[in-house]
Amino acid sequence: MCNLGEGIYEDGLMKGRKEGREEGRTEGKLEFALELLKDGMSLEKVAKYSKLSLSMIKELAKQNKLI
Known about the structure:
Elements: H1 2-38, H2 43-50, H3 54-63
Helix pairs in contact: 1-2, 2-3
């Protein structure tokens, strides 16, 4: 029975780490995109280089009063 509990714990830990890495990557992309927007790059190019959707870039620009 202890092994089952340990296995469940390990699975949860691995999933948490994976989600954390994904969130960190997305946060890094958003920071990068914001810097590009602040430098005056077009929304389309920011989306292309950051690999984020155009709608996410537009929302980011609106939130930061850049459009």
